[in-house]
Amino acid sequence: MIQDQPVTVTIVQVDGQVRSAELSMIDVAVAAFGLTGVIMVAAIVAGLSAGALFIWYRSKRAITIIEERGHQHNLFRA
User: Fold this and answer.
1) HEC string for 56-77
2) C-alpha–C-alpha distance, residues 57 and 53, integer Å
3) Can you say how many angstroms the Cα of residue 47 is from the centroid of all Cα atoms in its chain?
4) Which residue from 14, 45, 62, 73 could staple onto 67, CB 3.0 to 4.6 Å apart?
5) pTM of this prediction?
6) CB 62 within 8 A of CB 68
7) Tell me, what's the pLDDT at 58?
8) What is the distance between the alpha carbons of residues 42 and 48, in angstroms, rounded to a whole number?
9) Largest CA distance in the chain
10) Nearest 5 degrees, angle CA 31-CA 32-CA 38?
11) What is the mean pLDDT of the chain?
């Protein structure tokens, strides 16, 4: 047989005068862009620096064989 457990009653009173601080949409957006914003900025900086390094690297060396030969278009030249 199942024994009956005693019932305890808890009364909670909520004071309607105390209000929590209101958050605006800007506050929520700033809080949401915390870690995500840092990751986005790091990705942008990494992409820009990789692009700049690629352009610098390619500008120092000839891109084609014709440029390497001083723009001589004689393809039979050894």
Assistant:
1) HHHHHCCCCHHHHCCCCCCCCC
2) 6
3) 12
4) 62
5) 0.47
6) yes
7) 83
8) 10
9) 105
10) 95
11) 81
